[in-house]
């Protein structure tokens, strides 16, 4: 449509000689604005976004010429078109008759107005200018650098992400649980002060931190698989290595789709990904070689070494990286291959798994060091993050020293050295480039720890414990679209702008409808936080989940003044309706409950405290509008544990007259003998008709039960008024109940 608008402008401008030069210059102005949008869209896929202004402000030196050339060609075409139009307006003025000047000039003006108001490009550019402050992320844009390294010698890289193997494991109560890694650290380069700050702390973040040198900002850290593009605006190391002739291969024992990992790697320079399905498809293991998190480390590491030999023998440069899995919380997975290889007196299951992983990694690295290919190989080992809550947490938290990550570089000829300069995982690859004798090693927010350069982000964290500006910048790299961008729902796929999203999709938009944050799970428990961020809340989901009479895909925008409803079809937005109705989210004080099937974020919050929900059915006590910290009763009904109505009733007294109850994961697993006991709670036979992973949430007192039933395999979000314990469903929140 935009091309049609431009064509109409050109045609109507030259339809009459009257004011021809003025009309030509006006048309050129429109073309230049469109050209700006078009070229920006080639970079972002979402037109003019925050990232465009960030990168206009910062130095983009180092951007690949292969990426830039198509944009240059496009710019040349647009400039050539503008030159032709201006030249023609001077040369053809006497040839074109001045016929019906007022009529034709009025048509030209109408086309200008039409283009201004209806062109997607014009609207996008206008909205981008009106929101060009971009939070305070712009204030740190000058500290961000694109990758621009040069090196005379190409090394091969083996990059190891050691799941949760933090440096603190070297000394817990005087015991070193990772002696092999410690030995290697003492023999080569050991970085002793690698801190963890916001935007870090889980596996996907650790990978983005190291490879792109930015903190990872996503409200729900492991939900990036719900969007089609992963951090599209980031400049990451594997992309540059691949373009410089490197073979890039990543090996992991889990499913590559977890947390959007497959998108991140495939979109940021990785040619090959070997995951659990790869191992199974190629018959590299049997089911006994798998744990809940994926391929056991012994089989995975054996495969990685085979790949190391294969790639090295080709005499072509490569980046080979892998992620271990058996030290994943809560207790890790111990492997029998470590019998007799680690101390027998380790009884903590996590620390036992840690020592086993340390042994396997030590053996692997030693094999490379002793191979014929070590001369041209740099080995890097990092812990992807500090260990999360696990069976050894008490011991880790009692350590007197600050908890830090491991970062070790192993290269032939290096003299053993410890570097105590403070750094983060953002500094890992800039430092590795320094070991490669590269020029201009720093990129992103990272700096080589071999240089005197200071880490601006770490200094800011040390001074104020607040890096919100850096997180704001990192958030812009997602290239979030705007709700003003085209929306379509076709063949079960929702597309907003240039990106596809899973539903439900909700989050915050600013006053110009630019999306600031995105969530996919647990709407009820996140809604209060979202509304407190200000601006507006948006929500998009299957109409069956939000409305009693609509079908298809429904969208909502909520402010403190009104509620906007619309439906999304293959042709775009239809049936848009603005109500002078304020959502109860802004007027009522709620206890919010989100339950759902396995592997989804669930929980309950009273606005102050947040409670996780176990599998089965759980009852929560409420006193003065707040959830009682230690007053909950859980029944693992999926494991056939009957609900004791007597126990439930014992929790009702003068102070606590009602209990909130909720299912989670699944209230029923074969066999179904617990259904009668749940019917006793519901005071109906509804449980007899429920399917596995069909959720219910309600309020129970001595005289009655009120409850809501969800859809099988779908999350259920319910809001419960603190004043009268009234249940609010999504149709109440979005004014859709009839």
UniProtKB/TrEMBL annotation:
CDD domains: LTA_synthase. Pfam families: Sulfatase (PF00884). It is found in: Cell membrane. GO terms for cellular component: plasma membrane. Its EC number is 2.7.8.20. It comes from the Bacteria. The chain crosses the membrane at residues 72-90, 102-121. It is a multi-pass membrane protein. This is Phosphatidylglycerol--membrane-oligosaccharide glycerophosphotransferase.
């Amino acid at each position: 449509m935009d091309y049609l608008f431009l064509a109409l402008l050109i045609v109507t401008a030259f339809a009459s000689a009257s004011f021809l030069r003025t009309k030509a210059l006006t048309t050129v102005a429109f073309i230049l604005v469109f050209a700006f949008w078009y070229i920006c869209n080639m970079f972002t896929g979402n037109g003019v976004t925050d990232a465009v202004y960030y990168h206009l402000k910062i130095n983009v030196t180092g951007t690949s010429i292969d990426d830039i050339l198509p944009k240059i060609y496009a710019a040349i075409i647009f400039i050539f078109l503008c030159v032709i139009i201006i030249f023609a307006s001077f040369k053809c003025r006497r040839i074109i008759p001045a016929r019906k000047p007022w009529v034709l000039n009025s048509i030209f003006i109408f086309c200008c107005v039409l283009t201004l108001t209806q062109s997607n490009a014009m609207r996008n550019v206008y909205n981008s200018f009106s929101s060009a402050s971009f939070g305070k992320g712009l204030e740190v844009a000058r500290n961000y650098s694109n990758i621009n390294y040069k090196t005379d010698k190409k090394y091969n890289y083996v990059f190891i992400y050691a799941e949760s193997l933090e440096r603190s494991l070297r000394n817990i109560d005087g015991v070193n649980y990772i002696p092999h890694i410690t030995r290697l650290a003492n023999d080569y380069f050991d970085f002793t002060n690698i801190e963890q700050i916001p935007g870090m702390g889980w596996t996907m973040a650790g990978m983005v931190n190291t490879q792109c040198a930015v903190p990872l900002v996503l409200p729900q850290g492991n939900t990036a698989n719900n969007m089609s593009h992963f951090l599209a605006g980031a400049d990451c190391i594997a992309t540059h290595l691949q373009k410089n002739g490197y073979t890039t291969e990543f090996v992991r024992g889990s499913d590559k789709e977890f947390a959007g990992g497959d998108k991140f790697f495939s979109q940021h320079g990785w040619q090959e990904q070997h995951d659990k399905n790869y191992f199974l498809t190629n018959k590299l293991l049997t089911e006994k070689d798998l744990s809940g998190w994926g391929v056991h480390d012994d089989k995975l590491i054996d495969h990685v070494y085979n790949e190391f030999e294969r790639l090295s023998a080709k005499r072509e440069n490569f980046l080979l990286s892998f992620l271990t899995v058996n030290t994943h919380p809560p207790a890790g997975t111990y492997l029998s291959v470590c019998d007799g290889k680690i101390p027998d007196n380790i009884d903590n299951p996590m620390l036992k798994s840690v020592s086993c992983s340390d042994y396997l990694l030590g053996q692997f690295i030693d094999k490379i060091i002793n191979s014929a290919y070590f001369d041209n190989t740099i080995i890097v080992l990092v812990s992807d993050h500090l260990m999360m809550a696990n069976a050894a947490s008490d011991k880790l938290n009692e350590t007197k020293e600050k908890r830090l990550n491991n970062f070790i570089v192993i290269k032939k000829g290096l003299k053993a050295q410890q570097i105590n300069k403070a750094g983060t995982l953002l500094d890992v690859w800039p430092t590795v480039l320094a070991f490669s004798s590269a020029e201009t090693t720093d990129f992103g927010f990272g700096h080589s720890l071999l240089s005197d350069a200071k880490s601006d982000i770490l200094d800011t964290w040390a001074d104020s414990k607040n890096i919100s500006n850096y997180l704001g910048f990192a958030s812009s790299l997602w290239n979030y679209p705007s709700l003003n961008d085209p929306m379509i729902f076709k063949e079960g796929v929702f597309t907003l702008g240039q990106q596809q999203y899973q539903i439900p999709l909700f989050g915050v938009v600013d006053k110009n409808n630019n999306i600031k944050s995105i969530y996919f799970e647990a709407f009820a428990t996140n809604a209060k936080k979202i509304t407190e961020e200000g601006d507006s809340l948006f929500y998009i989901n299957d109409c069956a989940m939000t409305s009693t009479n609509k079908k298809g895909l429904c969208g909502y925008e909520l402010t403190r003044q009104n509620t906007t409803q619309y439906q999304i079809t293959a042709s775009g937005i239809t049936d848009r309706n603005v109500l002078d109705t304020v959502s109860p989210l802004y007027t009522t004080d709620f206890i919010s409950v989100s339950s759902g099937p396995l592997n989804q974020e669930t929980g309950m919050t009273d606005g102050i405290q947040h409670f996780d929900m176990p599998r089965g059915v759980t009852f929560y006590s409420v006193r003065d509008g707040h959830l009682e910290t230690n007053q909950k009763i859980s029944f693992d009904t999926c494991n056939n544990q009957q609900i004791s109505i007597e126990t439930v009733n014992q929790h009702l007294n003068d102070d606590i007259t009602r209990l909130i109850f909720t299912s989670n994961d699944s209230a029923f697993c074969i066999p179904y003998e617990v259904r009668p006991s749940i019917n006793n709670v519901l005071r109906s036979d509804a449980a007899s008709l429920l399917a596995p992973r069909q959720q219910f949430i309600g309020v129970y007192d001595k005289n009655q039960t009120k409850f809501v039933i969800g859809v099988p395999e779908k999350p259920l979000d319910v809001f419960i008024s603190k004043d009268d314990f009234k249940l609010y469903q999504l149709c109440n929140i979005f004014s859709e109940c009839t």
